[in-house]
Every structure is written in structure tokens, then in C-alpha cells.
## 1
Amino acid sequence: MRVLRVLALLLLVAAGLTAAQSGAAATPTWAPAATAAIHPGTMMYTAGAQCTANFVYTDDAGNVYVGYAAHCAGKGSSTDTNGCNVDSVPLGTPVDFTNDGSLISEGTIVGHGTLAYSSWITEHQLGTTDPNTCAYNDLALVKVDPADVGKVNPSVPFWGGPTGIDTNGTAAGDRVYTYGNSSLRFGLSPLSPHTGVSLGDDPADGGWSHPLYTASPGIPGDSGSGFLSADGTAVGVLSTLGLAPLPASNNIGDLAHELAFAQAHSGIAGLRLVLGTEPFQPAF
């Protein structure tokens, strides 16, 4: 009987250690939001091309990913945004994180990662032909090097959040919030927060795209940045600069659609959005 009790105790201890290790792997320790070097809005350089981080993601193994637009790693021109027609640099391509890049240089590198998922690469592999998926599924994930995970915080600077994922789309007049950090702003954070309004979704897009207008429109280098709805939920990823329905409008790919596609086809087990550690507080 004593032997059985000892064996049972050992099994419980082993189970506890396994659970603890699993929990530790599934819940990374985030840097304080005020001092994190890698966060939504961080500049990301891939093969010389600069884009902006949208949100932070993790998986069942505890890996940490930062998202941007798939076209940020594309081989086409800045106006080529159809993922079914344009090639991408391969998975495993190095990506640098910076926060003070300019037209002259990338700035100070604060972390490293590798391209781990691209909707464009996946669409090519699957032979995707659906026009809305091809035109608007514009999400890529960069796996943060383990040595740099401690520099990451998932909160959107200035606004806070995200509080979840928006699944309702946008209606004309809905308020949206974003934090773009194009190198054209020379790393000046006061120029990065923007707010705007939705122009109303087009049913023909099948929920994949949301046209909108911000008072300070997204500019080259802002591509990939995330947009929050009025309740702080993540609604989309900046993809294109639109000429219609309004000049200097922007189009964002729907994050719920893009993430569901990635969850189904990326091979990343348990891929999910990380909520912000800071509350969503729209200042205006």
C-alpha cells in the first residue's frame, strides 16, 4: 500500500510539472507596455521593405508572432496586392524590428524574427482562386526570436487593447483607431495615432475588406498596421491605399477572416490573437 501511495505521489508531481511547463509555454511573460521595444506599431523590415506591425499572436507551444501584411514580404511592387498573382520571399526570411527608421536607414534594430506564415504563400500552395480571398487576404506572421520575446508587449500604443476580434464588420460612420509608424514619419510617435471612420462595407467583398478614411491617411510604410473598432476589438489590417470611394482612403483586410484562414492552413497549432495588457481608452 505504501508503495502505491508513493507511486501515486510521484505521478501527481510529474503531472504538476507537466502542467506547469505547459502553462509556462502557453503564456509568455510580456514586457511592460511603457518600455516594450516590440509591439503593435513597431517597424518591420524584410529584404529592405518596411511595414508596420499590427498585433501580437501566440500558439500552443508558447511561440510569439508579430503580424504585418503579406505584401510586405511580396516580390511585386507596392501596388501589387493580389496574393494569388504575386510571389513572396520564402518562409524563414529574416525580419528586423525597429522603432526609429527613416528614409535614410532602418534605424536601431531592437529585435529579430523570421517569416513564419504568409497568406500569399499559402494561397499559392492551395491554388486559391476565390477573388475576394486573393484580393484581401493580406496577413503574414513573423516569429519573434526566443531571445527577443521578453521585449514584446501586445498592447496597441496610445489606444490600448486589443480587447478581442471584431466579427461584425463595419458600417458607414463607425469609428476606427490605428497606430501607424511609417518611416516617412521618422519614428516620431506623436504622428502615429490616427482615428477615422468606416465608409461602409461592400457586400460584394464577402466580409473580407473594410474601406475607411482616417484624418491622417495611412501612407507607404504603414501597411500591415492594425485597426481597432470603437470597442477596442481588432477589426483589420491595413492593406491598400484606395482611390475610391474617396481619394486617400484606405482598405483593411478583415482580421477575423484572415486569422481563420491562417488557423486552418498555417500548420501553427493553437494560433491566436493576444489581447492587450492595457485597457482600450480612445482619447478622441
## 2
Amino acid sequence: MTHKTDDILSRRKFLIASGAAGLTGLAGCTENNSNSESEPTEASGGSGDSEDSGSGSESEGLSGDVNIAGSSTVFPLATAMAERFQKEHSEVNINIQSTGSGGGFANYFCAGQTDFNNASRPIKGEEKDQCSNNDVTPVELKVATDALTVIVNNDNDFIGEGLTVEQLKTIFSAEEKPTMWSDVNSEWPEEEIEIFGPTDASGTYDYFIEAIIGEEGPGHRQDYSATEQDRTIIQGVKGSKFAIGYMGFAYYSENTDAVQAVAVDNGDGYVEPSLDTALSGDYTPLSRPLFTYPAKESLAKDHVAEFARYWMESSTSKEIVADEVGYVPLSEDEKQEMLDKLNSAIEEAN
């Protein structure tokens, strides 16, 4: 993937590093340095203590906190949107925590402690129930499309064109749990497979099970190096010739010199992960939608509603979503559908 300027590349690397740190107060990324390490504040149905001076859909004089938890995959996109929004509204403080999709739902959003939860898979039924029990109403908004990426070490010279879906299932499922590469293919080295991946709190983990192992299957093997930090997955695979891992495409795109992406064959030939193959639908079954979920109750606050609108209005931006972050933007029709859903929720909230 190409980048327009060195500044954009450097900034994107900062975003990824911030994601590894887990929490960022995005005001610290702009001229306003307040709350650079603040935790999400507790409030019913979302958070943010400051009242807005604007009203309705007006965006002048906005102030207050916006607290976001959830997916590490969506983190760089949320960061890019929040940073731009804060340049226009310096009195709005946006704090983002990278917790994994499930960790964000269970521990923050559905507990009423954050205004948004980012997710790399749809909200689950039990999460909806938890939200309902705490008077939190999630509003599902698609924000981009990702190409979930399997990576191996740069010195891996034996897998050839790539891996089939069946081979990935063999490697990662709890049923077979091969210990050697030769257990997957007798022509491959008799060397131990070192596996790195996200934790079970991650939407990426959930999606990998759905797409590769099957939701009714044996489940994901647990004898692997699990982390919520994508940077750790990159480092682990980079450090061993016989390692394998997976993550969102944006993190791989920042590290194309450190590791190599694996082409995947779903029965119609090997396809490499890219923005083009995700958009065309050729990269199956690992292309996937990404979401953010504002709490409808929080949308009654002008600064939260206006940030949500800003994100949706910018969701078709090739410059932000594709060139800067590394995902496929929404189409104009998708954007309008999300805006209609959002505006209806804002109207109901008020």
C-alpha cells in the first residue's frame, strides 16, 4: 500500500503504537493536552460529564468527554476520526481504550461506562442482554471493511503459494492441534509451529472462528501465544521462521517489511489480502465488516452525536480510511444508510 507523505506514515505508526499501549486520550494528540491518560468515566447509558453549549444538530461550542472502548482493529480508524474532530472542536475530549470487542462490550459499554464500543464483529445476543439490563441501547454502525490477514515469517519458504482454508482450520482448530508443520503437510519441515493471535476477547478471534473453524466446530486451540496487542503478534512472527499469526489488515500494512502476508485459497485459487480484493469480494472468507456502536442514550448529548455524525460523514473518505488507516471505505449508499440510522437514533434520544 502506498502513502501520500512521510508525515502520514509516521502518524499511522504512532496510532498503531498507541493501540498497543491500550488507552489514549486523543486530546493529547492535538494542541489540547488535557486528559491525555484519562480512563472512561462511569455514567449510566454512556459517559461524559460536561454539558454542551450547542443544541440539537448545532455543532458550535461543543464541549464534553467522549469515551470509547472496544476493538483493537477499529482503534486506528477511531483515532484518525477523533483526532480530526478535535481539531475542529478543541473543547471535546475523546478517550479511546483498546480492549478487544468483547472486552469492551462486557466491561465498559454494556456496563454503561462508555459512549461507544468499537467492534470487529457484530454484537452478540448475550451482550445485547447485558446492555438492556443496564439501560444501554447499542446502535450498530458499519464503518469500514477489513481483510483479516494471516502472517508468517519472512524466511518461511515452504508454504509456497499460500494456505488453504482447510489447512488454516487444521492449524488453528482445537480438534487436530498439529505440533509440527509436517503434521499439516508431509512435505513441510518437521519443525514446531509457533502460533500467535488475539485473545478470546477479540472480535478478530471470534471472526476467525466463524470464517475458518466454524461456529459449530471444535473451537480455537488454546495452546498458542494470545495477546490483545497486535504489535506483539507481529514481533512474535518476525522472531521465528516457523511462526504464524493473524490480525487486521491495517496492522499488517504497517509492517510489510517485518512479516509476509499469506494468500488464502477458499477453493477458487490463492488470493492475497488487500484493499482491492476485500472490496471486490475475492478475498474470502476473511474480508469482514467493522463496526462502532454508540449508545443511543449518549446520543442525547450534542458533542457525542456530532462526533458520531462526523465519523459517518467521513466513512467514505479514501484519504482517511484507505490511505491513512488501511481499510476499505463505505460506499455512498452504505454511508447514507448509516447516517439515516444514526439520525433516527439521535432523534429518538432527544
## 3
Amino acid sequence: MSLVHKDLAAGVATITLDSPPNRNALSVRLLADLADRLAWALAEPEARVVVLTATGKVFCSGADIKEQRAGDGRPDAPVTASLPEILRTLWESPKPVICRLNGTARAGGLGLVAACDFAIAPLTASFAFTEVRLGVVPAMISVPVLRRVGARAAADYFLTGEVFDAARAAEIGLLSRAVPEEELDATVARYAEMLTKGGPEALAITKRLVREVPQLSFGEGLRRMTELSAERFTSEEGQEGIAAFMEKRSPTWVPPVSPVE
């Protein structure tokens, strides 16, 4: 039985962690299932947006501690086997990824949160980077987290392991939104609907430029973005979007609205 489920509806691929007995910990089995489901979502032509969520009260408690105990002479920890590639897949996904936190997240689970394009959580959720309290470090997850969270806030929570709430997580950039629990699904659905209206190629390219343009000099940035702008206006997707706007219709990439039964 898989520990990660998949579903596809109205252009949205939903991937659900489902291992509540260990609080959706990043076990070897769950990571393998998650990698498989992510590969499916990215390869599925009808999937325009990916939503990552979980069952139970905890989104993800981090590494499966029971599996991390040494004793068999292995030189590495099980969580290092596939988590780096999963973080890379989420970060580099050409399709927008929304993390719908059903609840609390800790340690490695926050790596998944930071690697997604959007992260929306209920105000009741809490967060903590607990690694140092176990004598380990938030090593792999620091790569996406430090691209979301400033150095001062990262030092505050990486070094102390202090628990902080969803409002604070949104304030420091770890979350996109913190909303009342009863508004969680509607907020995620609104984001997904807005994202399906964007051209698939345009979304993938825009994801990259958000990360790459700040690294360019002002002049080089203008030069490269001028070329990109001209390319996109004349592209097949760009021409379809312009035609749809002029003809007051939806572009061909927007999923059709399902009839109400």
C-alpha cells in the first residue's frame, strides 16, 4: 500500500502524504513513493498545477528518526538517499507547486515546504527546525529554506529550535499565506485556479526568471529580458494568449469548467 496518494481533477494534480502513524515522517518508503508521484505529476499532460498535502494533523514531522539510528555500518543516513532529488524536483518543477499544509511541520518537512512555489497553512499550525536539539543540522533543507528566509530569522530558528506559529512563518517568508483553518481549502483552490489560467510555458519560464534575474547586473538583466519578451510575444503560446484576449475567450490551455450536476 502506497504512503503517498495521487489524484487529478480540473488540471490540478494532488499528491497526498498518508502515513499518519509516524506523522508523515520522511521514511525511505514514503520518500520513494513521493518521488514516484512527483514524476507522475510532472509527466501527466493534463496536470497544470501540483498540490502537495498530507493526511492527519501533521504535514510532515521530518526524517523518520527510527530509520536514522546507525548500527549497520552504513556511511550515510537513509533520508539522504532521495530527499535531495525530491527537493530539487519540487524547486525546479516547470509546473507550479502549492504546498497545502494540513497542520504542523518540523525539520525536514520544512524543506518540502520551502521547495514549493507557494505554501499555505492554517493559523493553528506550528513549525520548528529541531535538528540541533538532536545533535544534527538542517543541512539539506537549508538549501531551499535559505532562499525563502532571511539570515537573521534563519539563525534565530535554526540555532534555537524554537517553535513558532504560522503567522510568524508567513512573516519571515517560509509561508505564502497563513489563513484561518476554515479558509485553507478555498485559498488553495483560488491559487490553483489562478495558476491554471497561465500559459504552461510562460509559467515555467517565469518561475526561472524570478530566481535568476536578481543575480544579473542591471544592464545584462535588461538585455536578456528584452530578448525573452520579444521571443514570448512571437511564440505560439503568446500568440494564442493574445488572440484569446482579443476574441474574449479562454486560451486553449485553460482546463474546461466541469458541468455542475
## 4
Amino acid sequence: MPASTPLQAALWMLGAIVSFTAMAIAGRAISSELDTFELMLYRSLIGICIVLIAARLFGTLGSIQMRDLKTHALRNVAHFTGQNCWFAAITMIPLAQVVALEFTSPIWVALLAPFVLNEKLTRLRILVAVLGFIGILIAARPDISNIEPGIALAALAAVGFAGSALFTKLLTRSHSITNILFWLTVMQSVFGLVMAGWDGDIFWPSVVIWPWVVLVAFAGLCAHFCLTTALTLAPAAVVMPMDFARLPVIAVIGALAYSEALDPWVILGAVIIFSANYLNIAAETRRKSPVR
């Protein structure tokens, strides 16, 4: 691997961190008018336009196919659920706490992989899950008798993102990124329409809110594109720890923009969650590296 590749990966991860952060800020601004289902509906409709325009420009329209729609559906139900929980959580609890709990997603991937990808559940993965759970308890410090809805939603969002990641891995074995993103936006437009319109009342965003809605759509696609690109330039053990920089960034923004306290327990819990993730990633990287 060229010496400059990790630096390039870091620059792409910087783009991912900026995009994820922008999406959180925009999501909070939109919550004053739209519920999460309406937000997902408009975000997905804009996403369809972005994907089709990009596919046209790069000549990948022909890769859109109708194979494995069941797997696409499972992937998008998981992602739709996780994303709705995430957008709801960022309006209920401090942003840093949401991000800290979101970092448990790779741990859920390790636990669920045996059921979706037929991968072995090793003692290391069990240890990683235990450490991650300890990190959750420290970061969230839930009152067992009265768990905050925001904490529960952030934790559920991590599970949803894990399911999305697992089914995405299945799809990438035989489908292009264009095809995966196309069905993501199309299916989630349908899900959003059904869930937002079940009561017969879908709110049309005001002129003030529309720029934030567009920002969410662009930021979401940009974040995942930057992350995927970074992973093609450097090993996961190098790339994924960079995402941890998102926690202090979002914590500072939360303090400055929303007067949220910088909670040291959230940082400590996130460090433990991050350490568990890094332990798993490093072990998997060593296991898959060829013997020289």
C-alpha cells in the first residue's frame, strides 16, 4: 500500500465526520416542523434524484437490477428503523451521548454476523460485546426503573445500523453500489410515505426548513460515500478509529450550539466502546492478513 494512502483515507474520513455532524445539526433543525417519518420521506425522494443523476453521469444506470429484492428489503427495514430512531434520539438526549451509543453498532455486527453471514461467534467477539455493554452503561447511566426514551432509541439505532451493515455486506458480494443505493432510496421513500401518511396528514416543509432537508439528504449520501472510499484506501483497523474523532467534535458543537454539558462519563464510556471495537477490528485484520 502506498505511504500516502493512509493520509488520503484520513482526508476521506474527515469528509465523513463533517457529513455525519452536518446531518445531526440539520436533523435537529428539522425536528421543529417534521417528524422522523416525514424527514425520511423527503430525504429519500431527494436521494433518488441524486443517485439517478450520479449514475447517469458515471454510466452506471445499467447496474440497477431487480435481483435479491428480499435482501434489499431486509437491509432497508433495518436501516429505516435505525435512522428513524437516530433522528428521534438526537432531539431527546445530548448529541455526544447519541454518538457514544451509536459506536456500539460494530459490536452488534460481531454478535449478529453468525446468524446473517454464517460467521463464527468467537470468544473474542463475546469479550468485545461485554466490554461494549459496560461502555453503554457508563455512557448512558440508565435508571433501570425509568429508562429515558432517548437512550433507548439511540441504542436501538445502533442495532438497526448493525443489521443494515450486515445485509449490505451480503449485497456487495453481487451488487454494485449504485444498485444498493437506488433500492435504499426507493424502498425508504415507500416506507416513509406509508409511515408518515398513515394518519392522512403529511406536512409540507416550510421555505425555511427545505435547505436543512436537502442538507440531510446530501450529507447522508456523502458520509457513506466518504466512509466507503476511506475503507478502500486503508485497512479497517486504520480507518475506523478515525471515526472516534466524531465524538469530541459533536460534543463541542453540542456545548456551543445547544448548551449541552460536556459529560466526562459519556467520554469514558465511549472510550471503552471504541477500545472494544478496535480490539475486534485489529484481531480480524491480523487473522485475514496473509502470512509473509
